[in-house]
Amino acid sequence: MIQRIFSAELPVGERLLIKKNVISNGTSSKRVCIVTGTHGDELEGQYVAFKLNQLLSKNLDSLDGTVEIYPALNPLGIDSITRGIPNFDIDMNRIFPGSLTGSMTEAAAHYIVEDLKGADVVIDIHSSNIFLREIPQVRINVNLKSQLVPLAEYLNMDFIWVHEAATVLESTLAHSLNIVGTKTLVVEMGVGMRINHDCCNNLIDGIFNMLKHLGMWSGQSVDEVKKPILSEADAVSFINAEKSGIFITDTHNNREVKKGECIGQIVSSLTGEILEDVLSPVDGLMFTLRAYPVVYEGSLLARVHRFETEK
Amino acid sequence: MKKEILFSMKSPFRDDFNIYGYTFGSGSKSLAIIGSMRGDEVNQMYVCSQIVKELASLENHGYLASDVSITVIPSANPFSMNIGKRFWTMDDTDINRMFPGYDQGETTQRIAAGIFKKLENYEYGIQLASFYMPGDFIPHVRIFNTGNDYIEEANDFGLPYVMISDPTPFDTTLLNYNWQIWNTKTFSLYGGTNQKIEGMATKHLVNSILRFLIKKGMIIKRTFDPACVSETIRESQLKVIQAPSAGVFYKKKNAGDYVRKGDELGRILDPYEGTLKARIYAYVDGMMFFTHDSPLTLQNTPLFKIYGSE
């Protein structure tokens, strides 16, 4: 059943509509919410939402409880390939929990949080932006590690990144829900403006696996999900460009790299010079790799989860 | 006057990205002023340019106090201004949301770190700031409420209002928040609107900075400028009037107008048929502090903020 969770008037003959599809069966009061489309350039969640809708509708008898799918929290952004909120130049994931006395988007954020509150689990699906390619992963604030890591392990992801708390992240949807007791997992995968079907299908398997463990799903599911690598205690090394130029690489992420291994080069298209050989500073799993070639000094090129011996 | 490059970076295809600073005097670090960090903050850069011009003249005539050093950074983001973008040219990140910065981090974190290093340890800091929604402010000084004890010094700008606002988590990466956490007495000056250099609003800001310099003894010169007595208010005291519907917005009152309860402030019209959808009235007497200044409005947009009471 399609429901509107927010509706407000735009200036010229249109309404801003944020919708969800509520799929319900059986007697269980359990509720899992899948949200995506906060950033308009992140599209992996669209495929996941489509497939979940399709699979749940076709196999409704196997569901006991409610799954709610919110494909577009920022519909104007997705529709215009705008990462933030059109008209406001602001990142939607920095205005939660919203406000009824603020702008339209703050009101939307308020109603989104109110609608999601009380769910047993919320999965907030993000892609990367257009600049970086990410392996399928769950990101968890260190303060929520004990509550969320066991849930994240159901999701068939390659990687769980337990990161440090930051005050600025208190404005995110996930934080706003977690602090009121609604367990919310943030999934990141792929690259902006594209859909990687394999990554998405892995997550879909993971979501059904989670539903099974919550007692909400008796239908088909994978026998065994991936055992994700858990990264915590600041075990991630960042590799940033030291030169401005074009980053060229013939490697890919989701593989082990050795300390000193060349993962790419920054070159000058004007002079033909190699400006920088980009080397991994550690042994580890390269889980992030730059996808957009033009770089400035400081542009993030890769992230590597250091293996134990490097600590 | 000493002009120097405070931060420099190579671009893949453009000229070098340089941030210039102008320093007057060679005494202790007294005051730093920063103008535009976003590409549409033209007025903020212009106000700084006028301060540079004034300070150069005052220094040449011997009016600068002997023990001070004043640095002005008119623009920390010329690249975005030159191509008409508000945020960073490549990735749309906001330099003003990257403080205190990180010199090993991403590009805008590095720019922020480079700026912040130069701005550290000044006794006073002034940022010419802008708001994230299109609008027109009455000139005022704004300070984050972080338990600081220098609020009264904001009166030395002689602007009508000193606004105290509570920082949200999202605000903790702004320059003005971090600057004051690092013990610089920081003031943000607001006035006018983005993308425009406006006559009186600009003059108010330029004069207020000069007034502050004279009050603090950094400039030894009599002022003939009659400053007003500032009133300190909190953001929560402003009465917000939101758009009851969306459409074409016709504004009848401006920032700085005194309004009375029942006054018509603006209208919202149907964008296709031209008919009236809503009249917006003041429900309090008071001073118009902020007005939305786009010809269109969405539903719920805060159109007017009034400092007043019922």
UniProtKB/TrEMBL annotation, chain A:
Residues of the Succinylglutamate desuccinylase/Aspartoacylase catalytic domain: 30-214
Keyword list, A-Z: Hydrolase, Metal-binding, Zinc
Cited Pfam families: AstE_AspA_cat
Required cofactor(s): Zn(2+)
InterPro entries found in the cross-reference section: AstE_AspA_cat, N-alpha-Ac-DABA_deacetylase
Keyword Hydrolase: yes
PANTHER family: BLL3975 PROTEIN
The protein's name in its UniProt record: Succinylglutamate desuccinylase/aspartoacylase family protein
Organism for this UniProt entry: Succinivibrio faecicola
Automatic annotation (TrEMBL), chain B:
Keywords tagged on the record: Hydrolase, Metal-binding, Zinc
Record domain Succinylglutamate desuccinylase/Aspartoacylase catalytic: where: 29-171
InterPro entries for the chain: AstE_AspA_cat (IPR055438), N-alpha-Ac-DABA_deacetylase (IPR053138)
Cofactor needs: Zn(2+)
Top-rank taxon: Bacteria
Signal sequence range: none
Protein name, as recorded: Succinylglutamate desuccinylase/aspartoacylase family protein
Organism for this UniProt entry: Succinivibrio faecicola
